[in-house]
Amino acid sequence: MDRIAGIINLDHEQDVLDELTYFRCSAAVPFAGRYRMIDFTISNMSNSRIGSIAVFARRKYRSLMDHLEQGKAWDLDRKEGGLFILPPDWNDPTDISKGDLQHFHNNIDFITRTLADYVVVSGTQNICNINFRDVLEEHKDSGADVTVVYKKVEELHPEHKRTHKLAIDESGRVTDINNDQRGDNVYMDMFILKKEYLYEMVEDCIAHGCSHLFLDGIKAQLPNIHVHAYEYEGTHALINSIESYYRHSKRLLNEIDHEDLFKEETPIFTKVKNEPPTKYSESSKVTNALVANGCVIEGHVEDSILFRGVKVGKGAVVKNSIIMQRCEIDSNAVLENVILDKSCHISDSRTLVGAPEKPFVVAKRVSM
């Protein structure tokens, strides 16, 4: 069986989730009741039997490191391989690299020393449940230099305007990578290639003064290399704005979408926290909600997502909202179309109302 190593490249991901990324990078943003966005990428790699994974982190990575620890939740706390969190360390005075190529250059030992034959490079803003072994088999069958992953979307949304699209011929070969506003083949910020070819690409890009591995090493070289497109057909969420975060979070209240993302055979793992079961009082009323453990609910919760340890007081109403870990909502408060970051406190009888297209967002540890 071919060995695969994984690189989770956060270097070029922008912290565009407003209040949710004031204190953390987007990869560490909580999602789906108990997870972080990076959990999906690491779980996909772990489920694909990728046992050596590097995380390239540049900004606001304290929360990320606290969450990932030694990788135990993903069975990556091992003697050989495992999880490597690699923040910036630019101590080489002769280093001429820039952009995300700095991370590849300064951590080139991860690439050269791994026993893997292939390397998967991925971001974290495309939420999905993908088997990279399937991508590898199609990559080998196509004879391509690089295989990129894409999703053919049925309906274009604002978040798709900010990402690359692929033009693909009948054989599955990528003929163009662009920002066509009408294009529906959305590049998912994932690609696979041979380890040796990745090393050559990094060295060549740096030698030519480039700053972005994908844009300069793949997109710009498209006429000279064979790039194959692998179509991912499962549930997919591109999260690069508050609006997309809110909308895709609410999609998980749909049973079909939830089951397709959280498959029994390829589970999504996260840091374990031992919490008691949620307590529902006689005064509580909960309909169509995703509720994590450790909550205490005395009020009304509808069409909402509650993370671990949330308290909803008697007479309080939480509707179409996302309430993150350890938030407290006092009696008779009303929240509709609201996102509360961790450890917020909403006082008695307070009313917060946003709009579905622009939810009201409260930053971490705020009391109102």
User: CATH class of the largest domain, please?
Assistant: Alpha Beta
Mean pLDDT: 95
Task: Tell me the number of strands.
Answer: 28
Q: Order of strands in the sheet with the most strands? A: 5-4-1-6-11-8-12
- Radius of gyration (CA) equals 21 Å
Number of helices: 9
User: For this structure, what is the CATH homologous superfamily of the largest domain?
Assistant: Spore Coat Polysaccharide Biosynthesis Protein SpsA, Chain A
Distance between the termini: 56 Å
How is the main sheet built? 7 strands, mixed
Class by alpha and beta content: alpha/beta
Question: In percent, how much strand structure appears in the residues?
Answer: 25-35%
Residue ranges: pLDDT <50 for 5 or more in a row?
none
* Domains, number: 2
Instruction: Say what the CATH topology of the largest domain is.
Output: Spore Coat Polysaccharide Biosynthesis Protein SpsA, Chain A
Q: Which architecture of the largest domain would the CATH scheme give at its second level?
A: Alpha-Beta Complex
Label the overall shape: globular
Helix-residue proportion:
10-25%
